[in-house]
Amino acid sequence: MSSLSRRRYRVFIFDPVATAEFSKRVLERAAITGALIGTVRTWDVLPTNEQLETKDMDFAVRQEDNVWIEKLLNEMHIPFGYCEIGGLSVELLEQGIKVDFVDRRVELSGLFREAVSAAQVEKEMSTIGTVELLAATVEYVIAMKLATARPKDDLLIDMLLRSADFDYDRVRDIVCRHLGIASVYRLDAMALRAGRVIPPRLTRPCRP
Q1: In the chain, where do the E strands start and end?
Q2: Is 35 helix (H, G, I), strand (E, B) or coil?
């Protein structure tokens, strides 16, 4: 028997309900606000047959608030790592928990900070199992996905452009302020390919 065939691999099965329960408990005990983002957030706004699978759950948090999450995780003796883009990552494989508390401190902390503030005002909620989580609006989710320029995120944007109900002008404004006018033009091109009727291009400069 080869050494490869003798190896034992741990299979991780992501449990969104267990992850939602854990994440809500962490955010509440740390007394901070986090807004659900990423693929799990889109499950609320896309038809069932268009929802994509994912292996984790993501929350937008303010950079300074991750200090309190880190402190709490240490007190709870829960192992964690650091996200390259800025944030904390927790994997509890035996429980099916995988969550990232993302602040994008490397380059886009302003976008994530603004998304959290908007979520606090608009109070959109996502329900995972029986757990209710504060959620970022679709407009901010699209902007965040656009920033990655990854094919899988472009696919999700395309699906949202085709199927989700949101304020397109608001997305453009968010993208313009945080990602720049070139990203607005890329978004418009994606929207046209998705069959969405878009307003004339921006005639004003992007506001900081």
Answers
A1: 35-37, 57-60, 81-82, 87-92, 97-102, 125-128, 131-134
A2: strand
Distance CA 113, CA 109 (A): 6
How far does Cα 113 stand from its chain's mean position?
Answer: 13
Which residues, including other chains, have CB under 8 Å from residue 175's CB and lie 6 or more apart?
Answer: 142, 143, 146, 183, 184, 187
Are 38 and 140 in contact, with CB atoms under 8 Å apart?
Answer: no
Alpha carbons 169 and 167: distance in angstroms, whole number: 6
Are the C-beta atoms of residues 90 and 80 closer than 8 Å to each other?
yes
At residue 96's C-alpha, the angle toward residues 131 and 20, to 5°, is 15
Question: pTM (2 decimals)?
Answer: 0.90
Domains along the chain with CATH numbers:
9-193 (3.30.460)
- What pLDDT, on the 0 to 100 scale, is given for residue 149? 84
pLDDT digits (tens, 9 = 90+) for 58-83: 999 999 999 999 999 999 999 999 99
